[in-house]
Specification:
Layout (H helix, E strand, L loop, with lengths): L1 E5 L5 H8 L3 E6 L9 E3 L12 E4 L18 H15 L5 E6 L4 H4 L5 E3 L12 E6 L16 H4 L6 H6 L3 H11 L3
Parallel strand pairs: 1-2, 1-4, 2-3, 4-5
Antiparallel strand pairs: 5-7, 6-7
Helix pairs in contact: 1-6
Bound molecules: S-adenosylmethionine.
């Protein structure tokens, strides 16, 4: 399967698919953190290149409800971010999953198909993650564990805090590849 992981620098989902024998490419404006097939640049450059499946992690900076106090001053940025999400959701790709935290996508575009938590996939943490799905089944939890800590909110300030907060959990990356790579 030819798989595009849009807006991914970590390589987590890309490598999970690659390990299962798929032709997976990650794409980000940034370099990839781990060696692998990666397009550094705008995902819109390659979105029409004949993918079977796209998993997209667009930036949530102007969309997440946790930043709602800034929405008034950032109306233009929010509209641009929403337009990017619309373009990704409407891409000419048979199967699409788009991931974001609890965000205005729900009210401005449509409600998510599923909300998952890291503790359903082997990580004892809470971080509600919404999935908008096209022609894909909901992800089935793979390893429900104890622990309901909101670790990401408690991370101390550091230059790479945003990266640590936004890197896809390994258990979720593995579940995507195992469950969506066999369709
Ligand atoms: C919230 S992060 C997602 C990180 C991802 N979960 C991971 O594990 O790598 C959003 C990413 O989207 C990238 N991005 C923003 N606009 C983009 C574009 N037009 N094309 C490709 N990547 C883009 C940013 O550079 C950022 O790394």
């Amino acid at each position: 399967m030819k798989v595009l992981i849009a807006c991914e620098y970590s390589g987590r989902v890309r490598d999970a698919f690659t390990k299962l024998g798929h032709d997976a490419t990650s794409c980000d404006l940034l370099d990839t953190d781990t060696p692998g097939k990666h397009y550094k640049g705008d995902v819109l450059d390659i979105i029409n290149d004949g993918w079977d499946l796209m998993i997209a992690h667009p930036p949530c900076t102007h969309l997440a409800v946790s930043g709602a106090r800034w929405f008034k001053e950032k109306a233009k940025e929010q509209e641009e971010a929403l337009e990017f999400v619309r373009v990704l959701l409407n891409a000419p790709i048979e199967r699409i999953a788009l991931e974001n935290p609890i965000s205005v996508i729900s009210s401005k575009i449509r409600k998510p198909d599923q909300i998952i938590q890291p503790w359903q996939f082997g990580h004892g943490e809470t971080k509600a993650t919404c999935l908008w799905l096209k022609n894909l089944p909901k992800l089935v939890p793979t390893n429900i564990v104890d622990g309901r800590e909101a670790k990401v909110h408690k991370m101390p300030p550091s230059p790479d805090r945003w990266k640590l907060r936004s890197t896809t959990y390994q258990g979720i990356a593995d579940a995507m590849a195992q469950q969506w790579g066999v369709l």
